[in-house]
Amino acid sequence: MLSKAQIKYIQSLQHKKNRQKSSQYVAEGDKIVQELLQAGMPVRAVYATGDWLEQHTTLLATLSSGAAIPVEAPVLKQLSSLTTPNRAIALVDMPPLADPLPEAGEVTLALEAIQDPGNMGTLIRIADWFGIRKIICSPDCVDIYNPKTIQATMGSIVRVRIAESDITPLLQQTAVPSYAATLHGQNIADFPAMKEGIILIGNEGRGLSEEVIALATHRITIPRFGGAESLNAAVAAGIICGRLLI
Amino acid sequence: MLSKAQIKYIQSLQHKKNRQKSSQYVAEGDKIVQELLQAGMPVRAVYATGDWLEQHTTLLATLSSGAAIPVEAPVLKQLSSLTTPNRAIALVDMPPLADPLPEAGEVTLALEAIQDPGNMGTLIRIADWFGIRKIICSPDCVDIYNPKTIQATMGSIVRVRIAESDITPLLQQTAVPSYAATLHGQNIADFPAMKEGIILIGNEGRGLSEEVIALATHRITIPRFGGAESLNAAVAAGIICGRLLI
C-alpha cells in the first residue's frame, strides 16, 4: 500500500525543482521500467499492477536496494503524469552528470537550448541508435528528467550519459572537430563519415548561437529542395547522424 | 462578431467525422494562416485579433471568397484546440485528394498506418523540405487535417499534395522503384541518390506490412550502432531522405 504522502511525493517529481531537490525522477511504462532494471540503474521502487510484478519476478530480483510495490490501476493513474497511464512506474535516483569534455576518438552530441521535452527525448533515442554515448546539454535545455522526455527516449536514457555545460567554453577547450548545424553551411553530403568530434544542434526556433557557429570547425547544412523553412531539430539531428556516422 | 452557432461549428471541426462531413478544416497559428493565404488556398474565413488583421491587410486582400473576422482573445481561445491558442485561425476548404499513382520522374512518400498526429505533420514537413510533392497515406493513417498534424506541418501542408490509397495495390500497379524502410534490409548508405520512386514508411510500432515489404523493389535499413530498438518513424523518414535524395 502506498501512503498519501508517498503518492504526493511521486506526483511532486513531475516538477523540475522537486526533482532537483531530491535527485530522483519517475519513469513510466512497461518497457522503460524493464530497461532500467536490466541496465542495473539505481531504481528505488517499482509501482506496478500485481500481474506486471508477477510477469517480471526474475527481473525484479535484481532490485537490490529498492522495493516492488503492487498498486491498483486507479493509484497508478494518480501517480502518472501521462494521459494514458502505464502498468508500471519506477522511482529512480538520478545518475551523476558526466564530464562534459568530449573524449578523443568518440562522437558526442551537444545540444544548445533545446526546449521541447519530446524533441529532447527523441534526440537521446537518436544518439543511442547511432552509438553516441554522451550528450552535452547547455544549462538552458529542457530538463532531461521531464516525464515527457523520459517517455520519448523509449528507454535510451539508460544507455546515454548526460553532461551539462555551456557550449562555447567547451569548444574553446577541446581539440576535436565540431560540426555546427546551420541553414548557411556546407552540404552535409560533402563530408566523409566522421570518426570523432562534436555534432552541434541548436534551439528549435533560432538554431545555434552565433558564438557556437563561429567557434565550430565545420558549418553543415542539410540541402533543401522544397518550400519548408526549417526541419524539426530532432529530425535534423537524425539526418546529420545518418550522413556523418554511417 | 461570431454567433454561438459559428463558434460551435468551428469547434466541431476538431473531430474527424465532422471535418469529413463538411470538407472543411481549421488551421491555427500566425505563420500557417499567412502561408495558406499566400498559397491561394481556399480559405473561407480568418478569425484573428484586430491587430493581426491590421498587420496583414495586403495579404487579406487576396481573400476573395472568404471573410476576415476580428475576434477577441477569449473567443480565439474558445475556437482553439491547442493549449496555447494563437492570434489567428483559418477555416479552410479541404483540397481534393491527389491521384495516388506515383508519377515517373518524381519521388513520392508513401505512409502505411502512421498513427501519431505529430509524426504525420513532421513527415509532411520533411517531404516539403526535400521537395517531395506528393504523399500517399493508407486509409488507416491518422487524418492529415487533425489540428495537431496541421500544427506540426509548420505550413508545409500548403505545398504537399495528399493522396489516399492502400499501399499494396499501388505497388502492384506501378513500375517505379520502391524503397521499404525495415529493420532487416540493406544499408541505406549502399544506395546512390534516387531519381524517382516511392519511399515507404510504416506504422510507429510494427513498421510496414509484410505484403508491402515483399512487393518493394528494395528493402532499406538505417544501420544501428547502439542500443535503441527503433527510431521514431518521422526521424527514420528524414534520415532516409537525407541519404537517398541528396
Molecular structure report:
The structure is a homodimer of 246-residue chains. The first copy, chain A, has helices at 4-12, 16-22, 30-38, 50-55, 57-60, 73-79, 117-129, 147-153, 167-173, 210-215, 233-244, and strands spanning 24-28, 43-48, 67-70, 88-93, 107-111, 134-137, 161-164, 178-187, 197-201, 218-221. With 246 residues, chain A is of the alpha/beta class. Chain A folds into two domains: 4-93, 2-Layer Sandwich (60s Ribosomal Protein L30, Chain: A), CATH 3.30.1330; 107-244, Alpha/beta knot, CATH 3.40.1280.10. The first copy, chain A, has a six-stranded parallel sheet, covered by helices on one side. Chain A has a four-stranded mixed sheet with strand order 1-4-2-3, sandwiched between helices. In chain A, helix 7 (117-129) packs parallel to helix 8 and helix 7 (117-129) runs parallel beside helix 11. The longest helix of chain A has 13 residues, at 117-129. Chain A starts with a helix and ends with a helix. The interface between A and B is large, with 40 and 40 residues.
